[in-house]
Amino acid sequence: MSDRGLALARSKMEAEGVAPAAIETFTRFYHLLESGETGLVREADVEPLTDLPRHADLAVSDADAQAALAQTAIIKLNGGLGTSMGMDRAKSLLTVRDDAPGQGDADEAGGLTFLDVIVRQVRAAREATGARLPLVLMNSFRTRDDTLAALAPYDDLAVDGLPLDFLQNREPKLLADTLEPVEWPADPTLEWCPPGHGDLYPALHASGVVRALLDAGFRYASVSNSDNLGAAPDGAIAAWFASSGAPYAAEMCLKTPADVKGGQLVVRKSDGRIVQRETAQTHPDDVDVSLDPTVHRYFHTNNLWFDLEALAAELDRTGGVLELPLIRNEKTVDPTDASSPAVVQIESAMGAAVAVFEGATAIEVGRERFLPVKTTSDLLLMRSDVYELTDDYRLVAQVDAPLVKLSTTYKQIAAFDERFAAGAPSLRSASSLTVEGDWTFGARVRAEGDAALPDAGEPATVPDGATVTADGVQH
User: Fold this and answer.
1) How many whole angstroms separate alpha carbon 240 and alpha carbon 161?
2) Are both 333 and 414 inside the same structural domain?
3) 44: burial class by Cβ within 10 Å (0-12, 13-18, 19+)?
4) Could you tell me the residue range of the domain that residue 430 belongs to?
């Protein structure tokens, strides 16, 4: 079964021109998958990460910050489609704000997308520091065309000699029962998936982007997800990283009780090396202690820093095939159809490369560096008045962010937008907002305290100007 499945998968990838490094990476993971590899990192084998330097404590001169940014490139992972929200194009093209700095009205294009904000963050940093600061996106085969079209109006964005993007690899989805490539004639594009953000490494190797950056005079790269607008260019962190001499660094946040997902860094007892443990790599018996903020204080933001010379050397040494742990991701071939065949997607996490680079380090950053949007609940918070855009296009919380929980009615972006067509409610006076059932929000709605809307049993409306409290709608 396995020999046939792997042979079919390799042939399919070769026929589509997938990069050799990506095919070899897939082959390595396939063998791990068929052997029953779980990639589990047991609590007994590791120690917590402690005593990290803090971003807030860095004493960096303007000159040092500018010098470090002058050697830094910004790489954004932009391969995500937002399929969990019912999207079929780049999630970074979602409108995240209806206002520009200093105004409360819609921007000239009807709002700012994630991509708009990212570009303007880079422009603002360039203007403030004089750095060239190239922005390079890792697109997938399903996000590239729309993304490049959206960037076309920004004719000042490209840096001479450097591409605006490089292409993430793709691999076949595997039938869960046979591990053979799935066939889906109704939409053959759904037969393919991106290999997770660990594909950054073979994709960088195949594209030649690292060498191009080095040849253009850049030494460092700041890498983050395009749906995390908190990861704006930062001269202080760039200067700290440059002075550290480390080949690799990860940004870590202090954990709160709400942080029940995402990876964490731990110290492997056998050799003292920092390694990453994803949620999927945590044994069921270890889950409680892994989530305990008094034991494991930090979680991984997926904001990384690379010394490009060290990265180039490792990519050249391995041919782009870094020995990262396997992540087995089980889905259906059509993510919008739960009745479609069950498939396995072979993935890896880019943060797991921390174990590859001797001397890798980490830094504690504030929550303002971690503002991901994974659900429509997150998106509502980002669109609300909890955050304001500064002149340099950073999203700054005006109050402690409330916990937002929307019912499954709002899971798909089309349904979400329809129910918040008049705009997000004011959340500055709310400690939480829980919406059950199906409610459409009018204009100028406010949430206060532990605001909650129960399931009314049928579609209902929060009228214009109403206040939502723990007792429901107050007119």
Assistant:
1) 27
2) no
3) exposed
4) 376-474
Task: Give me the residue label for tokens 């939502």.
Answer: 468
SS3 per residue for 189-237 = HHHEECCCHHHHHHHHHHHCHHHHHHHCCCCEEEEEECCECCCCCCHHH
The H or E element containing residue 112 is strand 112-113
Q: Give this prediction's pTM.
A: 0.91
Q: Which of 327, 343, 369 is the last residue of a domain?
A: 369
Q: Are the C-beta atoms of 423 and 443 separated by less than 8 Å? A: yes
364 phi and psi angles, rounded to 5 deg: -85, 125
Answer yes or no: are the C-beta atoms of 363 and 249 closer than 8 Å.
yes
3-state secondary structure of 352: helix
Reported as a single tens digit per residue, the pLDDT across 345-377 is 998 888 889 989 999 999 999 999 999 999 999
Locate tokens 């700012």: which residue? 112
197-221 tens-digit pLDDT: 889 999 999 999 999 999 999 999 9
Q: For residues 398-434, b (16+ Cβ closer than 10 Å) or e, as one string?
A: eeebbebebeebbebbebbeebbeebbbbbbebbebb
Amino acid at 199: D
Task: Kindly report the backbone phi and psi dihedral angles of residue 223, in degrees, each rounded to the nearest multiple of 5, phi listed first.
Answer: -120, 135
Decide if 332 contacts 245 (C-beta within 8 A). Answer: no
- The answer to whether the CB of 158 falls within 8 A of the CB of 187 is no
Q: How many CB atoms lie within 10 A of CB 217?
A: 10
| Tokens representing residue 289 in the block | 């202690």
Residues 352 and 424 reside in one and the same domain: no
Choosing from 344, 369, 394, the residue where a domain stops is 369
